[in-house]
Each structure stands twice: as structure tokens, then as C-alpha cells.
Input
Amino acid sequence: MTTPGDYAIIAVLIVTAISICAGIMVATHIIGPKRHGRVKDMPYESGVDPVHDARQRFNVRFYLVAVLFLVFDVEIIFLYPWAVLFPSLDQPEAASAYAGTVGDLANLGYTNGFFLASIGIFFTLLTIGFIYEWRKGIFRWD
Amino acid sequence: MPTRWGALPNSGIDKNPTPVDRIIRDPKIVAAVALVMLVLPPIGLTAAWLAFGQPLLDLMKATDPAILQFVFSLIMMGLVLFIVIHLCAALILAERKISAFIQDRQGPNRVGFFGLLQPIADGIKFMLKEDVTPARVDKPIFILAPCIAFVVAMISFPVIPWAGTVELPWGGTLTTQVASLDIGVLYILAINGLGVYGVVLAGWASNNKYAHYGGMRAAAQMLSYEIPIGLGVLVLLLVSSGTLRLEVIQDQQTATGLWNVFLHPIMFLLVLTANYAETNRAPFDLAECEQELIAGFHTEYSSMKFALFFLAEYAHMIIGSAVLVTLFLGGWEPLPGVSLLHGNNTWWAALIKFHIFWGKIIGLIGLYMLVRWTVPRFRFDQLMKLAWKGMIPIAMALVVIEGVLVAVGIKVDPTAGFVGNFGVLAVHLLVNAVLLGFILWQLSRTKAPVTGRQDNLPEIEVVPSRPAGQGGVSHA
Output
């Protein structure tokens, strides 16, 4: 079982990692030399003088990838609870293990096929969307 | 005659060695130091055990089990953090030596005998170099980005079951997992998902076009390749009925001796490949490919800020390999098919398990390095095509297949042992073979990739050159 101590350890670990990082940053800031110059402070673009700001418009395909990732990742996360429960739903002990949640469903006579079909509908919708994106040419980068 | 790995005798640097050079290049002195470093710790540990062992055991017996577990977890945390950071340094040297071996070069061989002190020299040099912050960068984000990359890489290891549990002689158990979370798998996925922030913020803050393109590419790549990893873990959750705990998933593999890599070889390859892409390493180092983008998102970073990105990449490799070992390769079990260490919870078994686990991790990292130095880099459209048109459809197909298999009752029985689960293994291998055949068939009927060379040039009309003296321009 997970105890509060487990999360406390993770908090300690995060604090440790941040302090290591902060220590390194402060040390390197103090130790190294500091020499500035107009040319040295320019962005390094292979010796060519930089032409206006680097933060400009970028290709919309990067944006599409981010949107697709959002959709897909949420859908995958939605599949996780199903994947955790599904293998043990038809077993007798599932009724006691998940009593009050899905155990009741198992006792009411819902079979594996029902749970597979219900997630299958969702997965089919996901696949239809995927095929649409494919045919639309969103994955074409050339 | 220069030896293959030794220092070249006639190179200029050896003509005027400094006293320090004499010391660190003398094999005898280095060997003596190494011997002392090997001999002293066992002697020291034995002495400490004789002096403080019994009082320590008494103290452990007297403490509350929850507090004992907390203290032990803290010690494990420090130990693993220590190992990860130092292994990073060792791996950087190993990588340079392996690349040198593959490219028939010498590799680092100046600092210390065989170049063994190179990581220390690198570390000192990183510290002493100037920490350049160019003008017009977004300063807070510029400083924050390497911190995010480093911290995210360092905090994803607590849920990995390094050596199972240890049974105490006076009753009770200690788990070597730093934090045994119910949501172990989700924790790993969530923390690894944060890694993209370090890269994309570094690229954005630098105000450098190379860094900007590198950051954008890295973001698109890391996001795309997270989906196969998520689907791969989903399949494993279906196999190892009903848990998100890494130690239970690992235990079910060692109980039967049937590692998940045998059940899902294609999925293992997908997740392994996606791991290469997640760590931005060749052949997927599009974000920092030297010929196009100088150093990509960390072009403007110098000194320890750059080193933090470097450490983060290597720590990502180590933790990614640890997750693969846990999920697919049976964790600390030495051999597939037999359960040698399963159920053996003594302290010495835990020590052996810990070493086997790290041995497997280092083996996988060796594979990372061989792949990096042998496989040429992808083009960006090929990279995206591989993720979205290759790996994701295959992973989705595997999820559907595994769901159907579980629904019809073909699933691993943890109590049946290797032979009892032979039918399950056979069905999975058959399905994987069929899927592999389908993939190969699809590959064979799709168009060949466009390369620089065009094999089927169209016929062109060749105009016959005019003989001399008929008005042709002479180039002589």
C-alpha cells in the first residue's frame, strides 16, 4: 500500500534534485570568468550576423503535432483504467476486490465481451479519427 | 610503434610533461591508486560492521517499521542518485571510447592512464568555463530550462523496484523501491512527459534561430514518440492483470519466468525505439544535428548549464533503460524461463538482484551507444512518418489484439510457471509473427524512400557536338 511516507520521499527527492541543480548553477555563476562584448553577446549563428529576432512564426505542422498529441494522449490515458481492470473483471475475486465499483457489474452478468465491446466503440472512434487525419495528410512532412 | 590505445610517444604534449602529467600518466601510480580504492572500502566496511554492526541492528529492531522504511528509502534515494550521477560521468567516457573504437580513433587517452580520469577533468573544466548568457535572451527561462531538464531526469527513478523486497530476520519487510506508489507506471509517464519543457523552453529562450528550430523539432519528436510508449505500457497492463505498480508487473514476470519481451517482441522494439527518440539520441538526434543546427536547442548554453543538459540526457537513458528492464526484461531475474531469485528475499539476494538490475541497464545502454554510432540519422519527415504512420498504428493494433486475447481468456497465469503458460506464449508469438509478416508485406508494396540518388533517370536527348571548324565555341 502507498503510505504518505512514499509521497514524502518523492518530495524529499524533488527538493534534493532542485538543490543540487541550484548549487551547480550558483557555483558555475560564481567560479567562471565574466567577459562581455557586443559581438560576443550576439546569438551564435555560424558567424553570420543574426537577422532580426529568432522568435518568429514557425511551421503550422509543429502545432498540429502538438494538438494530435493532446488528443491521443488523453485518449490513451482514458484507456488506462480499462486496461487495469479488464483482465480481472470476469474472475470471482474481482467482485470482492472492486466491491461497490465494478464488482457489482461482474455479478450482474456483464461478460468480458461487453467490456471489450464498450471500449471497442471508443477505440473505433479513435481509429476513424486517426484514419481521417492520415487521409487529410496531416502526417505528411515532405 | 604506438600502441593502439596508449599515448602517442612522439606527440608534442609528451615532450614537456608537467609534474601532474607525470603522476596521472604513470600506469604504476594509477594502478596503485585503483588498488587502494578497491581494497580500502571492503576493509573500511568490515571495520565499521565490527564496530557499529550490533548496535545498529539493535537500533533497527527497536525502531517503528514505518520509520525504518522511511530511513531506508532515504538511503536508497541517496544511493541511486549517487549511482546515476556518477554513472553519467562514466558513460560519457564510455561513449567517447566506444565511438573512438567504431571510428578507428584513439578516444580520450591523455588524462590519466587509458583516459580514465577524463570525466573528472571534464567536470572541472565545465565548472571553470565562462557561463555565457547572450544579450536579448529571455533570462529567467534561459536559466530555468536546464534546471527543468536536469530535475525531471533526476526524479523519475523512485518507483523502480531495484532489488525487490528484503525480509528482516526479526520479521517485517523493507522494500528497496524508494517510493512504492500505486500509480507507479503513471508516475514514470507523467515525469518523463515533463522532459519536453526543458528542451522547448531552452530553444525558445535562446533567441537563436538554430536553438529555436532545434527546440521545435525536439518538442514535436518527443510528443510524437510518447504515444507509442503509452500504448506499449497499456499492453503490458493488459498482460499483467490489474495493477499499475512496477514491482507487481516485475514480480509477475519473475514468478513465471515468462518475460514480457517474449510475449510482445514487437512492442518491446517499438518502446525501445521510442526511448531512443525520447532521449534525443542518434538516429533520432534531429533536435541537435550538428550539420544543420550546430547544437540545436543548447547552442547558446555553456559551462555547467550545458553540462546539466548533458547529464539530463544520460540520466534519461539510464532511467529509460531501467523502466524497460522492469517492464519487459524481468527486472532483477538473471535468466528467463527459470525463477532463480524469485521469492528469495534475503539481504544477500537483494545485493545480487541490485547488481543484476544495473548490469541489465548497462547492457541496454551499450545497445544505445552502438545504435548511435552505427545508424545514420533520419530526415525529419521520415522521423514523423515512422512515429505516426508506423509505430502508432502498429501499437494500436497490438492493443486491440491483446484486448481480444484477454477477452477470450488467453492470459498469463502467474501460478502456472513457465511450462503452464507455454500455450499463452505460443499464441502471442504466433500473433506477433503474423503482424510482423503484415508489416513486411506493407513495407514491400509501399514506395521506396526518396534518397539523393535517382536510379531511374529519364532518357535525355544528347545533342551531338559539332565537329571543330563549323562554328562551335572552343573552350581550349
Remarks:
- Chain A has one domain: 4-136.
- Residues 4-136 of chain A form a domain with the Methane Monooxygenase Hydroxylase; Chain G, domain 1 fold (CATH 1.20.58).
- Chain A touches chain B through 75 residues (CB under 8 Å).
- Residues 6 and 53 of chain A are 46 Å apart (CA to CA).
